[in-house]
């Protein structure tokens, strides 16, 4: 058991995240609060009650969201307690130390930026992002948003980690009035609690997970076509292979540099990735700005040791404000939570609900519904193959599925199938989305001779309430010329 003095030196706050969940399971981030819990060290009973004012997030970060009354209990109670003055003095010293570190880093960053601009005039227009606002409107160095994050046994490989991150929803911070995009980089805990965020949130989480798997990973800041600002992830192999990871889709792209000095008619590789320019890269220890003549991705070299191509910040300066345990960095992220769904039960429930909706929809059209349970079961292998392909990038099992369908559909009959993918398991929302597709509507509303319908659902559960839901509607009917 640590004594009170030792516990006083633990400056990591308790991160409280308040979310709102509506009837359709949509989540909204309401507040994010960092609680200094150490007032309990002065309580003789090891118990204390406090009230904290919770502020909003983003554009509402100065508006009160509510007051939270809390009771803090310390188990087991300390044999000796500290006076409130000692705790207040310690907190004051930490704030002074934090302010001084932030001041020194800001002075360094300004000097580093001036030197970067002096290299060439074109550097002024490059996307070099040193600071970013979090959900509370606090400016933090971008390196502080990345941590080495290990997922235990919840994620088995870097590619599965990329699939997990891509299943978290995309949502941009709301903007009040005009003026373009509202900046809001979320802390990892706030992002995971609400299960959605912008491309920056996805990229910092994926980079953190790839670092946990031992890869040399960096977040890239640049643009997509039409000069749209974008953030993605890059890994460098020991053989100098550069791989881009799109955190919104889990797609991977190999970087092949184009030689700008090659003869005009010489064959050059055509970029397959959707990125146009790159201004800087960073992770939890490094920050590097692109000082090459062109910031076009296909022309860039990623030799970070070449100081004429990449201008690096001092790792010591970055570590002073971003290293784990420093008073200026975000608190450590707790371990990822396991899946909240039981896949088989969730699959069965959603499938039953979709069958009911199909029957009711066809009844409204004056059509009877006859289900083919065997055909429904045959669809399972296709759904498993789709998810495997999203995880690994390789397709397998298609031959067996096609053979099984041929056997399940008699001669003279026509088969039609429509697979679709969701990030939720709300049956009515899913069915409404499916009917907006003319292909699915044609299957669900199929008319003809000897019509048999099939539907199969597979729910794949991932950490933190994320899920991949695959649904396939199918029908078979006798062809009449």
UniProtKB/TrEMBL annotation:
Function: Centrosomal protein involved in regulation of centriole duplication. Required to limit centriole duplication to once per cell cycle by preventing centriole reduplication.
Family: Belongs to the CEP76 family.
Recorded superkingdom: Eukaryota
Domain CEP76/DRC7 peptidase-like, first and last residues per copy: 183-313
Protein name: Centrosomal protein of 76 kDa
GO-annotated biological processes: regulation of centriole replication
Chain ranges of the Centrosomal protein of 76 kDa C-terminal domain: 343-478
Regions crossing the membrane: none
Signal peptide from the UniProt entry: none
Compartmental location: Cytoplasm, Cytoskeleton, Microtubule organizing center, Centrosome, Centriole
An example Gene Ontology CC term for this record: centriole
Domain CEP76 C2 intervals: 1-79
Keywords assigned: Cytoplasm, Cytoskeleton
Source taxonomy: Eukaryota, Metazoa, Chordata, Craniata, Vertebrata
Principal location class: cytoplasm
